[in-house]
Amino acid sequence: MLHTKIVDLSKEKIKPENAEEFIASSKFGASIVFYGTVRENNENKKVTGITYDSHDDLVIKSFKEIYNEADQKLNIKEKSVYIEHVKGYVGLGEISIIIAVACPHRSEAYDLSRYIIEEIKKRSPIWKKEHYENKESEWLKGNPIQAN
Amino acid sequence: MDQSRRFTQVPGKYFLIMKIKLELFGASRDLSNKDFLELNLKNKSSIKDLREKIINYVDQKFKGNENLRKIIETSAFCSEDNNIISENYQIDKDQKIGIIPPIGGG
User: Fold this and answer.
1) Is residue B1 part of a domain?
2) What is the mean pLDDT of chain B?
3) Are A125 and B104 in contact (CB < 8 Å)?
4) How far is CA A70 from CA A24, A63, A105, B78, in A?
5) Range of the domain at B37
6) Average pLDDT, consecutive stretches of 10 residues, N- to C-terminus, chain A (148 residues)
7) Residue A89 is part of which domain span?
8) Least confident span in A22-26, A32-36, B71-75, B101-105
9) Which residue in B76, B100, B106 is closest to A97 by CB distance?
């Protein structure tokens, strides 16, 4: 079972309670909810917030691919996964991503949660523009995507 | 279709012009105040040609800004049907193409 969404912060807020509700099931004995949040320091610069940009369709496509790959690569068949990423301005301490997973056993849940966030970092077309205390801002350098 | 807008004449030859709406994301948004750039390419141009066209645009509008040039050189491109397309992909109709700079969200 999979839920994916890009949350446009100019229209709505991201709601952590929805994630726990989505993955709740007595079929599963282990649940993990991961939150990515904006921290106040990056490479010795005082950060005041981050603007996230996203190619929504490609991001959702990548989330689905990552979910399906978990079947083969991690051999985790029974699972519930909830992934939401925001776009727009996010202040310090606020949530940029929620990854909630539920599996029958804890080792699978830990592996799956870690796998999803690492793959998103590598493959999902999401960009960050950091804003600093001195009012400057910059797009962070990322990793190029390769054509198949 | 306004045929006069669709063809260009270069030393005695006529070329069909493809109109590309280049959708901007991430660092490439610094190329324009809009969410896109409109570019004209010769029929059957490739992504390689499109990349060169954007770099020429950077050279003209941003005095060859090195950061922007590097972003364009390391970007991927995405078709209307949401596939990352190769350098040899042929552009044979008017279309939207997304530019995908190096990524780093989460």
Assistant:
1) no
2) 89
3) no
4) 20, 11, 15, 25
5) 17-100
6) 97 96 96 97 94 97 95 92 98 97 97 96 95 94 82
7) 2-137
8) B101-105
9) B106
Cβ–Cβ below 8 Å for B106 and A126: yes
A8 touches chain B (CB under 8 A): no
Give the pLDDT confidence score for residue A120 in this predicted structure. 95
- Alpha-carbon gap, residue A111 to A144, rounded angstroms: 25
Report whether A14 contacts A98 (CB < 8 A).
yes
Largest CA distance in chain B: 53
Domain with A64 in it: what CATH number? 3.90.1170.40
Q: Which two tokens stand for residue B105?
A: 């969200």
What's B47-73 look like in SS3?
Answer: HHHHHHHHHHHHHHHCCCCHHHHHHHH
Q: In angstroms, how far is CA A1 from the centroid of its own chain?
A: 17
Look at chain A and report how many structural domains it folds into.
Answer: 1
Q: What is the DSSP letter of A35?
A: E
Question: What is the CATH number for B44?
Answer: 3.10.20.30
Give domain status of residue B70, yes or no: yes
Confidence of residue B15 (pLDDT cuts 50, 70, 90): confident
Q: Which residues of A touch B75 (CB under 8 A)?
A: 144
Comparing alpha-carbon positions, the chain B residue that sits nearest to A51 is B26
